[in-house]
Amino acid sequence: MVADNVRKVVLAYSGGLDTSVILAWLRDQYECEVVAFIADLGQGDELERARDKALSIGASEVFIEDLREEFVQDYVFPMMRANAVYEDGYLLGSAIGRPLIAAKQIEIAKKIGADAVAHGATGKGNDQVRFELAYQTLNPDIKIITPWREWDLNTRSQLLAYAEKHGIHIDKTGAADRPYSVDVNLMNTTYEGEVLEDPGSAPPQGVFSRVRDLVDAPDEPENITVSFSAGDPVGLDGVALTGSEIFARLNELASKHAVGRVDMVENRIIGIKTRGVYETPGGTALLVARRALEALTIDGEVALLKEELMPRYARLVYRGLWFAPERQMLQAAIDHSQQNVTGEVEVSFYKGNVSVVRRTSPVSKYSRNRVSFEQGAAAFDRSHPEGYIRMNALRFAKPEATA
Ligand code: ARG
After folding, report:
1. How is residue 212 annotated by DSSP?
2. What is the sign, positive or negative, of the torsion defined by CA atoms of 294, 295, 296, 298?
3. Which string of DSSP letters, residue by residue, matches 108-172?
4. CA angle, 46 then 49 then 53, to 5°
5. What secondary structure does DSSP assign to 309-368, as a single string?
6. Which domains does the chain have, with CATH numbers?
7. Measured between alpha carbons, how far is 295 from 279 in angstroms, rounded to an integer?
8. How far apart are the C-alpha atoms of 27 and 317, rounded to whole Å?
9. 181 within ligand 1 shell (Cβ under 6 A)
10. Between the CA of residue 162 and those of 9, 17, 32, 166, 359, what are the distances in Å?
């Protein structure tokens, strides 16, 4: 059966089993041209192999784009200016990748005259919402094909059988064999589903692939100094680096010291709870360092407002509303607060912790002169607190009869 009339579709392709089956299925079901788009967000896969695989399954064309720098500079860093954390645990590393992949798909579709886009996200998850809200914001006319909500390949064995039938190579050592779902990019590795579905059981041995187990962490701490300019990291140990270089180095250090693993139960967009396990090594270190620098450089009331807005902001990102006007409004306010978040923070990695040891800024709000116990009346008039305290105590007066 030929569904709809789609001529040419841009598929977000990973090289894994699911999107490979989708590629074959799209050609089968829609009898259309399928263009595979492979986004490099720092997942570390062999992308040229994925290209060959897509072509062998029948993609008419394959686009591979190295989006690492754009991912960090235009998505991760702006999000991190909010110190965004979803439900007290998830640093949103996967959620923030989706709008970028979707935006590139729409861009490619326009360039090559495709009339549809497709993704491999499942029907119960968050990613379908994120991809499709982005598609619809950026091109309301594009057709969206959602294989997981359309086909009847509902079990792993059906999927494998379909792959077999269409001559799709199944990598027995790779993702197809893992009894859980994994998503990897420069910022995080996430694990969920199947063997992780029981929140009452610890993740089985061998699940984790990125951050070292705490018991294997080195006995010596290691320090690094992160430089920030207007809220964003710009270098390490005094050397200017690009965003993705900063992530690469911090990921390496933090992973080695067992920093950044979180096991949590979270509320999905569609209203169900799920158990998610995350490894966000470098991101965790950056969050700690950024907070320390904000504490030094941001006005207290501004910091409080920012802190109050953060859960709203994190929720917007989680719910796929990156391109929505309310996210842009919050971003403008947050960005405004970052003008003086410039300086250096030294952090120390040790046995699962990342702690701040030192922070400096050329534009801090911190006045040693004002805070010092050593200074006399020159820095601070000691009679001022008395009036302030009396004013504040006025409302504590005993009740009395009105006249
Ligand atoms: N629960 C996380 C989120 O919603 C992780 C999703 C990871 N996606 C995946 N296909 N495994 O952002």
Report:
1. P
2. positive
3. HHHHHT--EEE----TTSSHHHHHHHHHHHH-TT-EEE-HHHH-S--SHHHHHHHHHHTT----T
4. 140
5. HHHHHHHHHHTT-TTSHHHHHHHHHHHHTTTT--EEEEEEEETTEEEEEEEE-TT-S--H
6. 8-68+91-177 (3.40.50.620), 189-360 (3.90.1260.10)
7. 26
8. 33
9. yes
10. 20, 10, 19, 6, 57
Distance 192 CA to ligand 1 centre (A): 7
Helix 47-57 vs helix 17-30: angle between axes, to the nearest 10 degrees? 30
Ligand 1 atom closest to the CA of 192, numbered from 1: 11
Catalytic residue among 27, 127, 244, 290: 127
Closest ligand 1 atom to 274 CA: 1
Q: Is 315 a catalytic residue?
A: no
Residue in this structure with the two tokens 């640093």, named with its chain if needed:
91
- Sheet harboring 343-350: ordered strands across? 239-240, 232-236, 222-229, 343-350, 353-360
Instruction: Give yes or no for a contact between 95 and 62, defined as CB atoms under 8 angstroms apart.
Output: no
pLDDT tens digits, the chain, 403 residues: what are they? 455 799 999 999 999 999 999 999 999 999 999 999 999 999 999 999 999 999 999 999 999 999 999 999 999 999 999 999 999 999 999 999 999 999 999 999 999 999 999 999 998 999 999 999 999 999 999 999 999 999 999 888 899 999 999 999 887 666 666 889 999 999 999 999 999 999 999 999 899 999 999 999 999 999 999 999 999 999 999 999 999 999 999 999 999 999 999 999 999 999 999 999 999 999 999 999 999 999 999 999 999 999 999 999 999 999 999 999 999 999 999 999 999 999 999 999 999 999 999 999 999 999 988 887 666 555 678 888 999 999 999 999 999 999 8
Decide: 203 and 285 in contact? Cβ < 8 Å.
no
Backbone angles phi, psi at 58, to 5 degrees: 120, 15
Out of 181, 348, 361, 364, the active site residue is 181
Q: Give the strand order in the sheet containing 8-12.
A: 61-66, 33-40, 8-12, 116-118, 143-145
Q: What are the structure tokens assigned to 332, written together?
A: 């403008």
Annotated active-site residue 312? The verdict is: no
What letter would DSSP give residue 76?
Answer: I
